[in-house]
Amino acid sequence: MAPHHLGELAGLAALLERLGDRVTLLDAEAARADVRSPTYLGGLRIHESGGLVDPAALLDGLARLVDRLGVRRFDRSPVAGLRRSGAGIDLRTRSGTVRAWRVLIATNAFPSPLRRIRPWVLPVYDHVLVTEPLSDGQWASIGWAERQGLTDNGNQFHYYRPTADGRILWGGYDAIYHFGGRVDPAYEQRDATHELLARQFFATFPQLEGVRFTHRWGGVIDSTSRFTPIFGTAHGGRVAYAVGYTGLGVASSRFGARVALDLLRDEPSELTELAMVRRRGVPFPPAGRWWR
What we know:
Blueprint: H1 4-18, E1 23-27, H2 28-34, E2 42-46, H3 55-68, E3 79-85, E4 88-93, E5 96-100, E6 103-105, E7 122-131, H4 136-142, E8 150-151, E9 158-162, E10 168-172, H5 191-204, E11 213-223, E12 230-234, E13 239-243, H6 249-265, H7 275-278, H8 287-290
Parallel strand pairs: 6-13
Antiparallel strand pairs: 1-2, 3-4, 4-5, 7-10, 7-11, 8-9, 9-10, 12-13
């Protein structure tokens, strides 16, 4: 955290209060009393609108819900292309063609079958470490009694969470792009990034020096040039898209889905009239030209 971030936190606190949230702005002493780190210059507690969610459990719950509603799912059926067909859209897969009346594209970091949006989305890799289970004494040394989710306030930020079995998950900061926008499971392990994360972890919690990391991994996320999602339609309004969550999709993809569904209905709404929906920022340059 840098001193100028304190003003940003104060501004965010004022905005959240205007929107009806309950927040507490912390000075350095109060922040370190909550979670003991020499790097903290202040903090912001958001009491009501946040929480910790297991994305895999959320996805499993959503799948069970749509099954109960009678929705037909075609899992593990990559779409190789789409085309307009009469009043609907044909989606070509390896196993056959699925015909849909309307289509919502939420491909995120992976290549979209709608090629026109590919220049707007860049796949980058985010990486994570997980510690061994901490002892009671180690937990006491850092406080963190409420085990809330934490993130720092930099442009390149860390996120960290306690796990149910007493570990700390620590990730973020680096965002690694691979030439040509390639996505490959081999990129999920990156020694340089995991070693950097370890150094930053011990700088944040020097009292935990010597703790081992037992798990490490990475995953691909999607970013746009403005770091927020982009929205739009194609094929006469039969296709809508919401992509570019920049690693924050668990929290904001429900908003994105509501926007895209309004676009598919072709019904102007409070959401579709937002400037962030009507404008997209700028596309990324082609990779070869960008790196010259």
